Amino acid sequence: MRYLLGVDLGTSATKTVLFDENCQVVASASQEYPMAQPQNGWAEQAPQDWWRAAVQTIGQVLRASGVDAGDIKGLGISGQMHGLVILDKQGQVLRPAILWCDGRTTAECEEITSLVGAERLIATTANPALPGFTASKILWVRKHEPQLYEKCAHILLPKDYVRYMLTGEYATEVSDASGMQLLDVPGRCWSDEVLQKLQIDKALLARVYESPEVTGFVTKEAAALTGLKEGTPVVGGAGDNAAAAVGTGVVEQGKAFTTLGTSGVVFAHSDKVTIDPQGRVHTFCAAVPGCWTVMSCTLAAGLSLKWFRDTFCREEMATAEGMGKDPYYLMDQQAARVPIGANRLIYLPYLMGERSPLLDSDSRGAFVGLSAIHTKYDMLRAVLEGVIYSQRQCLDILRGMGVVSSEMLACGGGGTSPLWRQMMADVYGLPVKTVVSQEGPALGVAILAGVGAGVFESVQSACQSFIKTNPAQPPIAENSARYEPYYQIYKGLYPALKDSYHALRSL
User: Which residue from 221, 272, 353, 486 could staple onto 361, CB 3.0 to 4.6 Å apart?
Assistant: First the structure.
């Protein structure tokens, strides 16, 4: 039997999953790590934590499975996108990584737009300048930490740091590189024009591959740490959402999924480049060679629910621990008792600012309509609904671009909740399915590894063979009608609060 390994480097944890050649899970392990917020709106992590988590989880799945490391034919890595990792000439980390949800670079985004030109930037990189993307982070470090930047010899994305530690190679691939704002997305290569205008040395960047291509091989040193066999191929892999697309079978025109993880994403596959000229949603290269994706990204989807859990649901967490249950299960039970509309309470999920479709790093979360009648469970229901409203607002844009079909797949941690999925179906007005496998990104990059190692003929054929879906949850017409007026109010709240958000930031 041949085996494939998928490493999924998330914002809160790294999960490693070992699959057999039929894409069945053999063993899995995960390891959490912290995120630092040195200032309001900032987000950083230590890249060394990612590597330690990868080493531990790879070792755990190998020991748990009893599989001979020589039977593992390939490894793929999925990762949180956009994070900035900078290394010196010796490959040592120079500072904590600045993450995708960090909002400190508004001024640098304005600088990028001025230097490149708004229309030219979107035409080349397929996106406007955004604080979440990597290019503005590079400019921020160069401006605010010049002595450190002088030592910079290599710029990597989070998953590509783990690749470097595994293989010794400085490499990336098109799906993740698309989110750096330095890639010619239609051409699938670094943009010499953008790099020149931003005065970023191309030599600092990694070589760009297609996602299923082999980028390097496990070194002797990495093999000793992880238990892998020296020489095991490591393929390009993919950014987390591009990997999830492969892991859910969204690899053909018109297919789409919604992820409710730390961030919230509505993601559609396209066989051609389709760009929103207003830059409200993002176009990236797909993990499928020669294809592209259109996606939104809201910054605090599952993060909103985690914040609410950690802040208000200590009793539920303690009870769940005693019952051997996930606290989110108990929270779902309580939220289900609250009527649609959360007793006239609406939540805006802008805890980390917002990216899609508002492009405003100054925006912040809010409960609107809060009164003395409301309980924490009304607030909980409002959080769940507000996150879905934010995804619907993004979906409406993708619908206008003609890249979404008549059904939706749900994935991510939030996608495991029947209550949240039914909200999605009702608010979207679409049937919502889940895939049988819940491994998403890890399965996606394992499939990519299988293609690179010659186990599978192509990404599409592997997905057709191995990705199975569960029966759909259809929308309930009565519920859809009840949600709609709340959604319309939701859409009007950000414009009404926008000036106040900017005023608060200036204080």
Answer: 353
In contact, 378 and 343? CB cutoff 8 Å: yes
Active site residue 88: no
3-state secondary structure 474-501: CCCHHHHHHHHHHHHHHHHHHHHHHHHH
- CA 129/CA 108 separation, integer angstroms: 9
What b/e readout covers 334-352, taking b as 16+ CB neighbours within 10 angstroms?
bbeebebbbbbbbbbbbbb
**189-193-196-197 Cα dihedral, nearest 10 degrees:** -130
Selection from 288, 177, 160, 278 nearest residue 216 by Cα: 160
Secondary structure (3-state) at 506: helix
Give the pLDDT band of residue 40 (cuts 50, 70, 90).
Answer: confident
Q: Residue 38 to residues 44, 70, 238, 298, 301: CA-CA distances in angstroms?
A: 8, 43, 29, 22, 22
Would you state the pLDDT for residue 359? 83
Q: Measured in Å, how far apart are the chain's first and last C-alpha atoms? A: 62
249 in Cβ contact with 463 (< 8 Å):
yes
CB 265 within 8 A of CB 199: no
Which of 436, 462, 457 is closest to 447 using CA atoms?
462
What are the tens digits of pLDDT across the range 50-83? Answer: 999 999 999 999 999 999 999 999 999 999 999 9
DSSP character string of 388-447:
HHHHHHHHHHHHHHT---S-EEEESGGGG-HHHHHHHHHHHTS-EE-BS---THHHHHHH
Task: Answer whether 418's CB lies under 8 Å from 448's CB.
Answer: no
pLDDT at residue 406 greater than cutoff 80: no
Neighbouring CB atoms inside 10 A of 211's CB total 31
> 262: pLDDT confidence band, cut at 50, 70 and 90?
confident
Res. 451: pLDDT tops 90: yes
Write the burial class of residue 324 (CB in 10 Å: 0-12 exposed, 13-18 middle, 19+ buried): exposed
β-sheet bridge partners, residue 78:
8, 238
- The per-residue pLDDT for range 355-380, each reduced to its tens digit, is 899 989 899 999 999 999 999 999 99
pTM (2 d.p.): 0.84
> Would you place residue 279 in the very low, low, confident or very high pLDDT band (cuts 50, 70, 90)?
confident
Structure tokens at 221: 């040193």
How many residues belong to the chain?
Answer: 507
What are the angstrom distances between the C-alpha of 165 and each of 171, 184, 203, 243? 11, 27, 19, 20
Max CA distance (Å), the chain: 64
**In this structure, what token pair is assigned to residue 24?**
């069945």
- pLDDT tens per residue across span 220-242: 999 999 999 999 999 999 999 89
Of these residues, 102, 160, 184, 240, which one is catalytic? 240
